[in-house]
Amino acid sequence: QVQLVESGGGSVQAGGSLKLSCAASGYIFRRCGMGWYRQAPGKERELVSTISSDGTTSYADSVKGRFTISQDNAKNTVYLQINSLKTEDTAVYYCAARLSVRTFHCPNDYNYWGQGTQVTVSS
To answer: Are 48 and 80 in contact (CB under 8 A)?
Structure first.
């Protein structure tokens, strides 16, 4: 069974940095894309960044220039480097993946999710 396990969250002061990791374990036939979402208290979950299997990345406008997504294909791991943290970055960060465990067909939506890791930024 595929699992996504996040790590790297914590409490930091504004201006600081964190690096989140998300490792996918289990049998994966094809990894189609991975991404990071976040959900702040009282707000809806929002897409932060994505990376496709070929390395193409995308970012929400609110994090461009501060967040960097990357991946290690050999380790089935995606990272999110977060710099210049702001208090408004405080949220639970979730890793998501579009994975196929049987065929070359890629799902249209994220079909696996991690448990989330808390990032708290203080002023």
So the answer is: yes
Rounded Cα distance, 54 and 60, in Å: 19
Residues 6 or more apart from 101 whose CB is under 8 A from it? 2, 26, 27, 28, 29
96, two tokens: 């998501």
**What are the pLDDT tens digits along the chain (123 aa)?**
999 999 999 999 999 999 999 999 988 888 899 999 999 999 999 999 999 999 999 999 999 999 999 999 999 999 999 999 999 999 999 999 999 988 888 999 999 999 999 999 999
Q: Rounded CA gap, 49 and 69, in Å? A: 7
Closest C-alpha among 50, 53, 55 to residue 67: 50
Give me the DSSP letters along 13-38. ETT--EEEEEEEES--SEEEEEEEEE
